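Page 47, continued from p. 46.
Same chain as before, 182 aa.
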Amino acid sequence: MADVVSAWIDEIAREPVVLVGHSTGAQAALRVAAARPDLVGALALLGPTFPPEQRRMPALLRAYVRNSRHEPLGLQPAIVPYYLRGGPGELLRFIRSAQRDQPEKLITEIACPVLLARGEHDAFAPQWWVDRLTDAAPKGRSTTAPGAHTFPYQHGGVTASIIAEAAARTGSSGEHRGGRPE
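Result:
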């Protein structure tokens, strides 16, 4: 996925972009920023997955149950068709692939400012995990949004503010940490 995104940005961008990734998409965005720092001016990682303990299926299932309590039922019609279309085998292969990733190692190589965000009830991106990634990023900062893991779909205005803040940090020193975007 990172190769596809890199090729697409290389084709369309005239200057470094603000790259945004949510959940496992944050892993792909992180890989693009590490491999092609010339293409990425700032990075926004929303609900970055998976902390080390969730790289085993029992812990991931427990996080799913905790997180699901805070997700609206109305979201199910939007996501279930994708799960069904992929099928259980492909979904499991995708999850296992994401569980093998180690973003805590890769983030130390990122040259651009990184803004990490999580939903306040996000069990897939717990606060300690986002703090760890923020501290590991040379130009890291974090924020918390309302909601759970799918906050970007539930709180569009907040998500847009997070992305705008990441864009404003392009080329900044990244010294300011913590708090909510304005």
